[in-house]
Amino acid sequence: MGKVVLYIAQSLDGYIARENGDIDWLWEDRDYGYDDFINTIDTVILGRKTYDQLFELTDVFPYQTKDVYVVSEKMEGHDKYATFVQPEQITPLINVLRTDQNKNIWVVGGSMLIEDFIRMGLIDEYHIAIQPILIGSGIRLFNSNEHQEELDLIDDHRFDDGMLMLTYRRQEKERKN
Q1: What residues pair up with 106 in beta bridges, in sequence order?
Q2: 3-state class of 117 per DSSP?
Q3: Beta-carbon neighbour count of residue 18 at 10 Å?
Q4: pLDDT the model gives residue 44
């Protein structure tokens, strides 16, 4: 049974991108466990802005070997790389994917999608890389949210360049969905 995993990097002051969505501050010269992580994933879920940004960042779509869903209020159907789903379809989709897959589901971003997944109590594990940089302002990883979630720290790793990877698992409670 697959888990829903948030695997993301943030600045020390809590931002995942600059105000304009730019991630120019993010170190990308090491994989920090990404290669091992991506091999545990069957499905990738992105917000529409994050999906659109991928085509600005790279010439090759990075998730061609994965099932890709893009959550969008405006787009429907599918394109060459992804199937578009409406926000109200998230919980039923996750329920099907959790039972139909052996590997995990990666919630890539952006912040609005992450906020929705947190609010709905859908994230099973949080893998958060904290990069030792202060960017001062931008798009926060965690926005104000009335949903409270108890987490257990299951792993922490400090890299020699100061990057810190924290892994938390949601405490077992009865699912609300």
Answers
A1: 5, 44
A2: helix
A3: 16
A4: 97
Among 103, 128, 125, smallest CA distance to 32 is for 128
Question: What is the distance between the terminal CA atoms of the chain, rounded to a whole angstrom?
Answer: 16
Q: For the purposes of burial, counting CB atoms within 10 Å of the CB of 34, is it exposed (0-12), middle (13-18) or buried (19 or more)?
A: middle
CA dist., res. 162 & res. 171, Å (int)? 28
Q: At 17, which helix (H) or strand (E)?
A: strand 15-17
pTM of the predicted structure, to 2 decimals: 0.91
pLDDT given for residue 38 in this prediction? 94
Residue with tokens 């002051």: 13
Q: Is the pLDDT of residue 174 over 70?
A: no
Other CB atoms within 10 A of residue 22 CB: 15
Neighbours of 71 (CB within 10 A): 24
What's the gap between Cα 20 and its chain centre? 19
Residue 158: Cβ within 10 Å count = 11
Higher pLDDT, 60 or 172: 60
Tens of pLDDT, residue by residue over 132-163, are 999 999 999 998 777 888 999 999 999 999 99
Rounded CA-CA distance 73/88 in Å is: 9
CA atoms within 13 A on the CB side of 3: 14
How many other CB atoms are found less than 10 A from the CB of residue 25? 15
